[in-house]
Amino acid sequence: MWSERTSVGLDVHARSVVAAAIDAVTGEVVQARLSPSSEQVRGWLAGLSGPVAVVYEAGPTGFGLYRDLTAAGIGCQVAAPSKLQRPAGDRVKTDARDALHLARLLLLGQITPVAIPSVEQESARDLVRAREDARGDLMRARHRLSKLLLRHSIVYDGGETWNGTHDLWLRRQAGPRLAGQATRAAFESDYEAVLAVKARRDRLDAAIEQMAADSEFTPVVRRLGCLRGVSTLTGFALAVEIGDWRRFTGNSIGTFVGLTPSEFSSGTSRVLGPITKTGNGHARRLLVEAAWHHRTRYLVGQPLRRRWDLVGPAVRARGDAGNRRLHARWVVFTERRKKPTVAAVAVARELAGWCWSLATMDD
Question: Is the pTM here over 0.70, yes or no?
């Protein structure tokens, strides 16, 4: 429960802010429509009976308003939208009602706040998400190009694709084999898009490598790198997406990234469904992708040894134990004839716990 006298809910949009305030002493409700300017919001809050507590939903407007209000000495929370309790029969949704609903929940102490990243963490998160967007754009650009060739019965059979040999084949064989000037123009456009997006992704990779080598996230990235499948890019992305690892436990970290099974239980019936897929989807994808690396026999290769050389013996021992355990889990799932996709998600959930264990270790 907040000890402030007035609870304020803000429904924040790009061009407007709808505010509702409830005086806990008199029960008076005050509502207003404001501009998204922090100065105007602070000015309106100054006219309320203090002290004042403020809440608004996390969303695309970011955390700038939170930082401005906190710097001004005003208690503020950013609510997790998925955790807001709403009446089942409420079928009317307006900005004013949303703001009033937030104010009431704040007054009752029913707000679940999100973790506010620092400015540096948010900046690094923007970088890794830009890289994630570039990865998706590159995948789509490659699909468009390969499917254009497939429609004209041109299929590459030289082994792995999207390497130097495949690129040479595209330029020297695939393009000239296309019939029609319009089709060749389409090929050139799609091929140029692949090269442009790949260059953008490579520039972002270089920026991430540079930041991971010398930043506040460097110790965590190096410890996470002791696990197979967690390269510098993956470790840095996990470090900035999770932020403060100590707010979780080895069990709760899997819930945060949506890798725990959904459950529908009543009375003596207990039914487990697919994973919840709640929380941070980017971190979940990285963990599942890394889990596949533990399927093969565990051997300590040169890339892993180079990452081990950056940490102390205790961290190396923990990482080695985690690698052995995760491979053993793959073996068990294989013997039980589990689908590989199901096994990968299960291993990813346990991998999240090992990442937490390494991230929270003292240097």
Answer: yes
Q: How far apart are the first and last CA of the chain?
A: 37
* DSSP-based helix, strand, coil % in the chain, nearest 5: 55, 10, 30
Exposed, middle or buried: residue 210 (CB in 10 Å: 0-12, 13-18, 19+)? Answer: exposed
- DSSP of 130-154: HHHHHHHHHHHHHHHHHHHHHHTT-
The alpha carbon of 325 is separated from its chain's Cα centroid by a whole number of angstroms, namely 26
Walk along the chain (363 residues) and give the pLDDT tens digit of each residue: 456 789 999 999 999 999 999 998 888 999 999 998 999 999 999 999 879 999 999 999 999 999 999 999 999 999 999 888 888 888 888 999 999 999 999 999 999 999 999 999 999 999 999 999 999 999 999 999 999 999 999 999 989 999 999 999 999 888 888 888 999 999 999 999 999 999 999 999 999 999 999 999 999 999 999 999 999 999 999 999 999 999 999 889 999 999 998 888 888 888 888 888 988 899 999 999 999 999 999 999 999 999 999 999 999 999 999 999 999 999 999 999 999 999 999 999 999 999 999 999 886
Q: Does domain 6-108 have CATH number 3.30.420.40?
A: yes
Cβ 126 vs Cβ 22: under 8 Å:
no
* Residue 113, CA distances (Å) to 58, 76, 106, 289, 296 in order: 9, 10, 10, 29, 41
Q: Domain residue spans in the chain?
A: 6-108, 119-213, 218-359
Count of other CB atoms within 10 angstroms of residue 165: 13
3 state SS of 269: strand
**β-bridge mates for residue 55, sequence order:** 9, 77
Closest CA to 75 of 122, 125, 109: 109
Contact (CB, 8 A) for 186 and 141: no
- Collect all residues with Cβ–Cβ distance below 8 Å to 77 and sequence separation of at least 6: 53, 54, 55, 106, 111, 113
